[in-house]
Amino acid sequence: MTDDHALAAELATAAGEVLLRTREEHAGIDPKELKDLGDRVSHDFLMAELAKVRPEDAVLSEEGADDHVRLSAQRVWIVDPLDGTREFSEVERDDWAVHVALWRAGNLVAGAVARPAKGVTYSSADDAPAAGAAGAPLRLAVSRSRPPEFVTRLADHLGADLVEMGSAGVKAMSVLDGTADAYVHAGGQYEWDSAAPVAVARAHGLHTSRIDGSGLVYNNESPYLPDLVICRPEVAETILGAISTVKAN
Ligand SMILES: Nc1ncnc2c1ncn2[C@@H]1O[C@H](COP(=O)(O)O)[C@@H](OP(=O)(O)O)[C@H]1O
Ligand SMILES: [Mg+2]
């Protein structure tokens, strides 16, 4: 049987191929329709595959009804079939992703983030440290459309540059690629937005936490998980300290 790390990567990559085909076949349709179609085809694909290869496991998907059987399950796949839906509907953009993570008995144990338009899949099977080095100014990856309310004060306090991108997975993986030093988010998000990015980031030795420094906990009754920091470990203390300062002011 394929191990869970490899399965997460295979499923995320294959769902990404389904999304690329959908985008091509439906080029020119109304962006709203393309978003809904993308969410649906990728969700349906992942649900069918998981039912085939891991029939005993529970699933929490952004696009599915929340089956509370997951709350007493030992193994739960937490998936975001299309993260960065807005960017998926803008043909020239490549900052969207597929997230597949596995939670087992309290912890995230495997994950993959596919960036289909780049032909890359990041996996928890790899443990290579983040590329590059943290320099000055620090580069903070933030949402294009809903950055944290304190983001400008944070950047000023740190003397950091803001790098706007779509998709939580893309922002998290930009820290691995060395394109950014940290991804900071607050103000709203759900478990499926961060589970796979966090599983991959942790495997590669990155810091992952809530913005108050506490741990990110998954498979809760409410999947609302509004904030996080994913960053190079050597800048974690600086960034968490700066967030705490700017939030207090
Ligand atoms: N304030 C907020 N409330 C709820 N969800 C949010 C949010 N800000 C970002 N998200 C979700 O986090 C993901 C990444 O967002 P962004 O690209 O803006 O950083 C998106 O997932 P989806 O694209 O799967 O809906 C988006 O919906
Ligand atoms: Mg999402």
Automatic annotation (TrEMBL):
Source organism superkingdom? Bacteria
* Catalytic reaction annotation: adenosine 3',5'-bisphosphate + H2O = AMP + phosphate
Task: Write out the entry's keywords from A to Z.
Answer: Hydrolase, Magnesium, Metal-binding
UniProt keyword annotation of Hydrolase present:
yes
Which is a Pfam family this sequence falls into?
Inositol_P
In Gene Ontology terms, what is one molecular function of this protein?
3'(2'),5'-bisphosphate nucleotidase activity
Record-given protein name: 3'(2'),5-bisphosphonucleoside 3'(2')-phosphohydrolase
| Source species | Janibacter alittae
**Lineage of source species:** Bacteria, Bacillati, Actinomycetota, Actinomycetes, Micrococcales
